[in-house]
Design brief:
heterodimer; A: alpha/beta; Rossmann fold; 2 domains; four-stranded antiparallel beta sheet; 9 helices; 10 strands; globular; B: 343 residues; mainly alpha; 13 helices; 76% helix; 0% strand
């Protein structure tokens, strides 16, 4: 029960000969929101794909809520919720069918009222019976997020999930996640470029550069930066990235 | 100087002629092709092997006889090639016109190179056909007079077909989206209270419906119309209609196969983060495909029986059973491969 929501140790992963992740260590505690930052092609999506089992690492271990992801049966996956890339959603199914299939594939007996309420706040209910192929990017993103939240997962993994969302829906999602994280119902690992989310909502941030975790910021460090610098986290991030590049 | 260096490094393949480089659409197509061959290095040798095999087939005496017959009655190859070329040209032109609106290069406002892009595939086709006639001529399977007649037929059919296709007013609007062809299902009332995997089974059948859309099926259906002048009561007319009907069934069955295989991989990937089991996956993916096939084959058997076609029934029944068994095997094997690959 005391095991962290996610424990990644000495993770190596890549595509064919190209090594993307090199010796990555990352922990997400229970009831914690960790933001994963990094420039494009730094390995954020690869790390998330490894965490949810969509990609097999070449070395290292991933433990979700005390259950090993590789060779540990379905226990680890039953604790996970992942918002896949919007373009990977099945275009020939309707949103309702996607939700139903995903819930059944997770072994759920019903879709929780909370998720349906969030769908209403997203103003998504009117889109339920349309084919996903007819959705805009934002609507696909909403569906991907709702799929990730099915079954009250203990670890929610989101890959730039706020991209394309309208401001009202983005705010609703931020509040929903923050509330659940603060209540200790779940933990969040979010790969993002939106620094306002890191400043205002995340408990911790990790910077991934060239496949390695280059720097981590604790919650108090984030708060201190917010108070000191006019440019806030943006300037601090740029300074760390510059320092890492010069090394 | 530094600026020049940057420009040099951006130049794609210095060996490409300047008339291609100044045409972005053409350049993008050429680079795409080159990249495909760089990425899949086996493609070039495989293509050459296929071409050599085809050239080998052309040296067979029977091909020479067929070509000689075609040269004696050139109206049939002329009409077929002309019609095919006209349809191809009209479609190609519409596709190119559409790309000028929705391509990633459209905002450039660069020349669309419509004529060049439309004519290049036609010239390639003509070259291939001319070569296909030259090979039997060189091996002695075809007479010089026959070859001359066929070359004249090919060139004149393509010229006329290209002109007709080019000036036909085909709608250049965007094609209908794929989901347009998929049947809309009525949602279950208690979908949220008792979610089921069942809608996953619609996916494979839906993709089959997209593959066998009317635009594709119409090509086979057109044989029925071609058969009508032979007389629906005559033996040859009935055979032509039966062949067209078998073609329709085959198209749908092949579409179901392709739908099952492709959806198995897509669905397995999509559902990787869930705890779905192999048995559940196979059952739900396959059962509606099997049902769809049962429906089709039942009609085939019934109609064969009703039409008193003993030969068709004798072949149709075992064929239906074999295809059903094959579908089961394909579904299981593909699902296993897909789940193994994505986990």
């Amino acid at each position: 029960m005391n095991a962290p929501a996610l424990n990644v140790e000495r993770l190596h992963a890549g595509y064919e000969k190209h090594c993307v992740l090199i010796d990555v260590n990352l922990t997400v505690a229970r009831g914690e929101w960790v933001a994963l930052l990094g420039p494009n092609a730094s390995g954020k999506t690869t790390l998330l794909h490894c965490v949810v089992g969509m990609m097999a690492p070449t070395a290292g271990s991933i433990v979700v809520c005390g259950h090993p992801l590789q060779g540990g049966g379905p226990s680890a996956k039953s604790k996970l919720g992942f918002a896949c890339a919007p373009d990977k959603l099945p275009g020939l199914l309707t949103g309702r069918q996607c939700l139903e299939v995903y819930a059944a594939a997770k072994g759920l007996t019903s879709i929780s009222a909370e998720v349906l309420k969030l769908a209403e706040r997203f103003q998504y209910m009117t889109m339920l019976d349309r084919f996903v192929a007819a959705y805009s990017l934002g609507t696909r993103q909403k569906l991907a997020v709702l799929l990730a939240l099915l079954g009250d997962p203990e670890l929610i993994v989101l890959d730039e999930a706020f991209n394309g969302l309208d401001p009202a829906s983005a705010l609703a999602l931020k509040h929903y996640l923050r509330e659940r994280v603060s209540d200790g119902k779940c933990s969040v690992l979010l790969a993002t470029h939106a620094l306002d989310i890191v400043e205002r909502y995340a408990d911790r941030a990790a910077l991934l550069l060239n496949g390695r975790i280059a720097h981590e910021w604790r919650k108090d460090e984030l708060a201190a930066m917010r108070a000191k610098s006019e440019e806030g986290f943006e300037a601090a991030l740029a300074a760390v990235a510059e320092e890492a590049a010069s090394e | 100087m530094a600026g020049n260096d940057v420009v040099m490094s951006l130049s794609p393949l210095p060996g490409l002629p300047s008339w291609i480089r100044v045409r972005p659409y053409l350049l993008a197509s050429v680079l795409s092709w080159l990249n495909i061959h760089r990425r899949y290095r086996f493609l070039l040798p495989v293509s050459l092997a296929v071409l050599l095999a085809a050239a080998g087939l052309l040296t067979l005496p029977i091909v020479g006889h067929i070509l000689e017959a075609a040269a004696q009655y050139p109206i049939t190859p002329f009409a077929s090639l002309g019609a095919a070329c006209a349809i191809f040209t009209a479609r190609r032109k519409a596709h190119i016109r559409r790309s000028q609106v929705d391509s990633w290069l459209a905002p450039l406002g660069a020349p669309g190179s419509v004529l060049l892009r439309a004519s290049f595939p036609l010239l390639l086709q003509v070259a291939v056909l001319v070569l296909a006639v030259a090979i039997p001529l060189a091996t002695g399977g075809l007479s010089w007079a026959g070859a001359k007649a066929l070359w004249l037929t090919i060139v004149s059919a393509y010229l006329l077909g290209a002109l007709v296709g080019w000036f036909s007013q085909r709608d250049a609007a965007a094609a209908r989206p794929a989901f347009h062809y998929v049947a809309v299902r009525k949602p279950r009332e208690n979908w949220a209270q008792a979610p089921r995997l069942e809608p996953l089974s619609y996916w494979a059948v839906g993709r089959a419906q997209v593959i066998s859309k009317p635009k594709v099926a119409a090509k086979i259906a057109s044989f029925v119309f071609l058969a009508l002048p032979m007389g629906a009561n005559s033996r040859i007319g009935q055979q032509a209609i039966a062949i067209a009907a078998a073609g329709m069934v085959l198209l749908y069955v092949v579409a179901l196969f392709i739908g099952t295989v492709t959806v198995a991989f897509d669905a397995a990937r999509w559902l990787t983060p869930t705890t779905i089991r192999f048995g559940q996956f196979v059952r739900v993916l396959g059962y509606r495909v099997i049902l769809a096939q049962l429906w089709v084959w039942s009609w085939v058997v019934f109609l064969s029986y009703a039409a008193a076609l003993p030969g068709a029934l004798r072949i149709g029944l075992p064929l239906a059973l074999w295809v059903l068994v094959l579908t089961c095997i394909v579904t299981v094997v593909t699902s296993w491969m897909a789940m193994r690959r994505s986990r």
